[in-house]
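Lecture 7 notes: from sequence to structure.
We start with the chain below.
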Amino acid sequence: MTKIKSCFIITPIGNAGSPTRRSADGVIKSVLKPELKKLGYEVSVSHEMTDSGSITRQILDKIISSDMVIANLTELNPNVMYELAVRHGARKPVVQVAVEGTKLPFDIIDERTLFFVNDMQGVTELKDKIGEVIESAENEENPDNPIFRTLGEKMYRDKLLESDSEKFDNSKKLDDIELMLKKLVSKSITSNNNIISKSDFSSIWLTCKNNDTNKILDILGKHGFFTGAGSRRANVDGDKETIGIDGLKDHEIMEIELILKNFDVLIEIKSN
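Predicted structure tokens for the same chain:
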């Protein structure tokens, strides 16, 4: 029986009905899903995931474990760039696509990218080319990427090959990659000169248990969440054992979830 391969699509999402969502869904439904299905892939996209539990954790697991990842870099969305860096850390196949005119950051400008025109003819042309590009990525034995070139192959091999790959704990792999990429990804996002609106930020509320409030504040402080220019303040309610933090981007919320994964804490996320 032929093994069904898995593919996760990293994409800008936007609000339902927005030009960003319509454009992204058009490419996914008209091109990527049909062509990936022909090649034997089962496709996942973050905004179509319905499983219970932490959605950010599920996304990161898909990014790490999927056989293939397609990254739509159109608009150079910060979350897309962050997720692409996590995939690079796993050193597994990835295909980049973007609308013509997208100015890629210098550190990924030389990576395999399939550009397309964002109209009906352009989508048809993308459909004609994407299958061959995916198959080419499949056949690369050791995919190269800027994460390995920057931080060195040996460092990642030590981290990612600590045990047999079939027995490797995916959760630990996520944590190691996340923490090592933090500074590199932040630099990449900043260098894109994206203008981020208030709607791109969220608040997070942490309900702590076991009297861990002060310990959690200390840990988040050590990870730089309350320091530097324009630093944030934590809204602490000692009686209810809650911590509120405003002005967080999605990749920062993902990081907080990973940092606190071993604590008994309820995490609630609210869009601003």
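Points to note: Residues 5-191 form a domain with the Rossmann fold fold (CATH 3.40.50.450). The radius of gyration is 19 Å.
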